[in-house]
Automatic annotation (TrEMBL):
Pfam families: ABC_tran. SUPFAM superfamilies: P-loop containing nucleoside triphosphate hydrolases. InterPro entries: AAA+_ATPase, ABC_transporter-like_ATP-bd, P-loop_NTPase. This is ABC transporter ATP-binding protein. It comes from Candidatus Aphodenecus pullistercoris.
């Protein structure tokens, strides 16, 4: 599976460019993390990738096919989306919610069968939430709902997974488990594109890091390359050093101590 972003530009008001001539290519097995300060264009990029917005110019292509030329069902067979937050309108069970992810794989008006049920249960087990299967979604915590959305996207069986800040509402343990699951999925051939504000998670889990600033692509590199370039300080407007400790990247900001001296 190959995702090509060609000359992608987008503006909401016809004046300020939210996305400005982005050119990117992603392939199966990539674990891509998109970094950007608030307002950098990450959410707008995702909405263009999903076909929810029409680019001002440029295209989003999956295996050479313009995504806007596909029906909603055909798009769902190719890309699954995990939002940062979910607010259920109906009190469905967790299992039913995850089963909804399989609808793009069955014919219109058909009901999920045993195959789809097995797919949903496997997705619940993947994210270690099978014990929530009978619970109502609206009774769950925000972090539990986030894991349910991850399972539903996996049940969709789409080769491209878009995660919008997937760990923002999770406790530390579930953050690590979710990132490890995403990494395993990419090793199985999925393409995962993840937006986050967590720099250390990006450096430790991504195979590629894409950095956006004012809608422009300012970096597309491996974590190792970014850690050595020293470009993170200028990107965030904050002096930061990156250290490697026991095989993990740790970001250390340089701040003033109580005496006003820089460490």
């Amino acid at each position: 599976m190959r995702l090509d972003i060609r000359g992608l530009s987008f503006s909401y008001d016809g004046q300020r460019q939210i996305l400005d001539k982005l050119d990117l290519t992603f392939s199966s097995g990539d674990f891509v993390v998109v970094l950007g300060r608030n307002g950098a264009g990450k959410t707008t990029l995702f909405r263009n990738l999903l076909g929810l917005l029409r680019p001002q110019s440029g295209t989003v292509e999956v295996d050479g096919v313009d995504f806007l030329h596909l029906s909603a069902k055909e798009r769902a067979k190719r890309i699954a989306y995990i939002p940062q937050e979910s607010h259920p309108s109906f009190s469905y069970s967790v299992l039913t919610t995850v089963l909804m992810g399989t609808t793009s794989q069955i014919s219109t008006l058909a009901s999920p069968g045993q195959k789809e049920m097995e797919t949903a249960l496997a997705a619940l087990r993947r994210f270690s939430i099978e014990d929530l299967a009978s619970r109502r979604v609206d009774s769950l915590s925000g972090g539990e709902r986030q894991l349910v959305m991850c399972a539903r996207a996996l049940a969709q069986n789409a080769p491209i997974l878009l995660f919008d800040e997937p760990t923002s509402s999770l406790d530390w343990g579930n953050q690590i488990r979710t990132l490890e699951n995403i990494r395993r999925l990419t090793k199985e051939g999925y393409l995962a594109i993840v937006s986050t504000h967590n720099l250390e998670q990006a450096l430790n889990y991504a195979s590629r890091i894409v950095m956006l600033c004012d809608g422009k692509l300012v970096a597309d590199a491996s974590p190792q390359e970014l850690a050595m370039q020293g470009s993170l300080s200028s990107f965030y407007g904050l002096d930061v050093s990156v250290e490697r400790i026991r095989g993990h990247y740790v970001c250390i900001p340089q701040t003033e101590d109580d005496d006003g001296m820089v460490d």
